[in-house]
C-alpha cells in the first residue's frame, strides 16, 4: 500500500481549506510544475481523500475539472462534556451528525468515572466500517494546556488538575485525541458557522461563565491555555467578606453573581425553588418577576466584566451562548447597558452584541472544524492513514 507523500499532504490541506480547486489554481497557489500537481492529485484521488467534483464551464476553452476534499473519507468521534451532561457523537468530516446520544454525568465526580462514561458512551454509538474514525475530539469546561491536552488548575473540575486526557483515552479508544476548552470550541464554531473570520468575544453563560477569544482570525489560548476565564474575573465591590463565595474558592467573581448556579441560589434565597440554570430559564419563561429581575441584574454584572474585555481587545462582536442565552433580551439588556457605560466609544460604536447563531450545536461545529484541521497536520495524517489501513 502506498504511503502518503509530504507534497500530497500539503495539497490535501490546501484542498480541504477551500471549496474546490482546479489544476490551474493549485499550480498558481503552490508554484508547482504541472506534472507535480498531477502526480500529487492522483495520489489523493487514489486514496479517496479528494474527489473530482466535475467540470465547470469557463468563458473560453475547455472547462476545468474541479477537485474537493471528500468529507466521506472518514469520520470523527466527539465527546462534548459539560458540568452536568455529556453529548457523544459520530460525525462526518464536515460535521454532519451520523449518530449521537446524551447522558447525565457529574464532572466533579473526577476524571476516572467521567472518562469511563466517555468510553462507554462512544463505544455504544453505532459504527460504520466504511467510515473509520480518524480522531476523537473532547471538549471540557476547564483550562486546557496545549498541545498536550492536559487539564490545568480547573476552577470547577474537582480532581482533574494535571489530568492528561489524550494519554487516558487514546489507548482505550485507539484514536488520536484532541482536547479543547468548551467555550473555545463554541467561539470557533461561531466563526465557522457565520463564515466571518474576525475579532470575536464569545461568552458562555450556563451553570458557569466562560469566554473564548478569536483575534485576527485565530483562537487565543494564552500561554497555558487559560485565556478567556471571564467567569473568575473579580467584579465584587465593598467589603470582601460580604461578596458572594464562588465555586473556585474566591469571592466576588463574575460567576458568583451571574452564573446559572448563582442566580438559582438567589432565587432560593427569595423563596423560589430552582436547582440550576435550566430552572432559572424555566422561571423566566413562566414570567416570574423575581427571575426577570435577577437575570437583568446578572446581565449588568456580566456587562461590567465584558466591558473590560472589550476595552482590552476591541472585538467586532460579543456573542452570548450557553443555557442562559435563552433568556434573550432580559440578559442582553444589562450587558449592553454596562458595556456602553464602561468601555470607550471607539470600542463600542460599531460593536454588535447578540446571541449565538446556532445555540444548540455551535460547540460541535467548532470542535469538528478544529479537529479536521488538526488531523490534516502531517504527523497526524500519516498516523491516521496507517490506522485506517490506507497507508503502510
Ligand atoms: Zn470564581
TrEMBL record:
| Pfam families the UniProt entry points to | ROK (PF00480)
- Provide the species name: Nocardioides bruguierae
Gene3D superfamilies associated with the record? 3.30.420.40, Winged helix-like DNA-binding domain superfamily/Winged helix DNA-binding domain
**PANTHER family assigned to the protein according to its UniProt record, in alphabetical order:** GLUCOKINASE (PTHR18964:SF173), ROK (REPRESSOR, ORF, KINASE) FAMILY (PTHR18964)
Q: Which residues form a coiled coil?
A: none
Q: Which family does it belong to?
A: Belongs to the ROK (NagC/XylR) family.
Query: What is the protein name stated in its UniProt record?
Result: ROK family protein
Signal peptide extent: none
